[in-house]
């Protein structure tokens, strides 16, 4: 027993019962010969208002319009089936993310006869993807930030230092470093406890971050109670001024330190240095030099800045 094929009305009923929106465009006239009635529920534009490809193009978000039209026209002219994601404007001024899946129908001679396809609402998927991307960006930011103090971490410094070094070498601008250590911090922790020690680290970091105030300046926690300031396009005098400003800002906080060997409040020792990198210079050697200056400051009695070799 054979059954007769369903008539056109059955196919149309099937198409119009899906959430995907079917459509067809005549290639010669660029006119819609059909678009599913679901389009009105999704975008608010009446089914009868979809007359030509211009109606389609004008209802694409202006930021997506040109690239989407150019891509679809080029693929269609080449006779290539394709997909395009774009924001379609709704009748009330909002937008919906659409995925258009396009099939090119050819004449017997191979020329393009029409385009048929389906529009799918992918707004929920796009929103989920955007949320994932946002979370990834937030995690990336967190991965470069010290969780205790809120300033950049060692990883961030290790990433930016060679970049700024290369810029300084290319431009001939000076690059400065300040390496900072909190004086007698072990004694502070032993006396006040680690909870108070963590708060102390946060307040010191805040002072240093405020002192290195330009957008390109970087304050990073180097490890333990040690911090580093990366100061691009900063000469020796300016770097010394930044270090002095940081010390003053910290002094203004008046953080008590009963077990300090240099006073009754938290102080720091600093090593400062500046270089215009040449082809023979090494960033790690320069960093070691500034670290040595820090220990010179500590050896000389702490609570001071050392910016020269002894």
From TrEMBL:
CDD domains linked: GGDEF, PAS
A matching Pfam family: GGDEF
Q: Protein name, please? A: diguanylate cyclase
Q: Which organism is it from?
A: Duganella alba
Q: Which residues form the PAC domain?
A: 82-134
- GO MF annotations in UniProt: diguanylate cyclase activity
The GO annotation for biological process reads: cell adhesion involved in single-species biofilm formation; negative regulation of bacterial-type flagellum-dependent cell motility
Describe the reaction catalysed, as an equation. 2 GTP = 3',3'-c-di-GMP + 2 diphosphate
Give the main EC class.
transferase
Q: Name one GO cellular component term.
A: plasma membrane
InterPro entries found in the cross-reference section: Diguanylate_Cyclase (IPR050469), GGDEF_dom (IPR000160), Nucleotide_cyclase (IPR029787), PAC (IPR001610), PAS (IPR000014), PAS-assoc_C (IPR000700), PAS-like_dom_sf (IPR035965), PAS_fold_3 (IPR013655)
What's the superkingdom here? Bacteria
Which stretches make up the PAS domain? Answer: 7-66
Q: Where is the GGDEF domain?
A: 173-310
Q: What is its EC number?
A: 2.7.7.65
